Amino acid sequence: MGLGALPVGALVLFQPKRRAMRDAELAKRAVGFAAVDRHVTSGTCIGLGSGTTAFWAIERVGERVRDGDEIVAVATSSVTEQLCRERGIPVIPFGEREIAVAIDGADEVAADWSLTKGGGGALFREKAVALAARTFVVIVTPEKLVERLGAFHTPVEVVPFSLRWVERKIKSRFGVEPRLRGGAEPFVTDNGNVLLDCSFGSIADPAALDLQLREIHGVVATGLFTGLTGAVLVSRSDGSVDSLAGPGERA
Fold first, then answer.
1. Among 55, 58, 60, 65, CA closest to 24
2. pLDDT tens, 50-69?
3. By CB count within 10 A, which of 137, 170, 246, 251 is most buried?
C-alpha cells in the first residue's frame, strides 16, 4: 500500500515516525563521516566495523577511495566485506598489514569506555580487529551512552558442539537463562558458531565477567570489550559530532 492509500489518521501518525527514522540516519551518517575524516589518512590499512552506524563510515571511505585516497580495509563481517567491494574499497585478509585505525559502532558505551557489542553477530571478528588496531574509534548516537553496561544483553559466541554445556554452565554460575539467538532456527556467525544472549543486569566489572565467561570451554568470545577503546565520537541532535572525554580526562 502506498502512502496515498493510507487513511489521513495513519498518515498523521506515520510522518513523525518517518522523520525520526530520517533524523536517526542523519545522526549516524554524521558520526560515521566524522570518524573517517578525523582519523583515516591515505596510504593506510583500516578496520571497518559492522552495523547501521559503521555503514556510514564505509560509505565515506568509499567516497575517499573514489577521490583518489589509497586506503585498504580489513572487514569485520561478510556483510561489511560485500559493502566494501561494492564501493571499490580494496579488502585484504586480517593480519596481512598493520591496522592503523579501526572504526565501529557499539550497542552500549559505559562511562569507563567499556563496550557491549555483537548485536549484529560479528563480535569475534570485531574484537580481533579492535585488538589489532593501533587506534580503535567507536562511533555512536547519544542513546548508546550508559553509566554501566548491562541494559543491552551480552552476546556470547559458542561452538555449536558445546552449546548445551555452555548454557548449563552460564545458568549455574551466573543465575541467568541464556537465550539462543534465532531460537529454533539459530543465527550462525561468519565463523560457523551460534550466539547466546545473556541478560546479566548492571555489570560492575565487565573485564572480570568477560574472563569468567571465556573460561567456560566452548565459549569463543563475548560482546564485552574492555581496555580497547581509543576514542569515542558521539553525534548530537544539531548535527555536530563530539569527541567524548576519556575516563582519565574528566574533571
1. 55
2. 999 999 999 999 999 999 99
3. 137
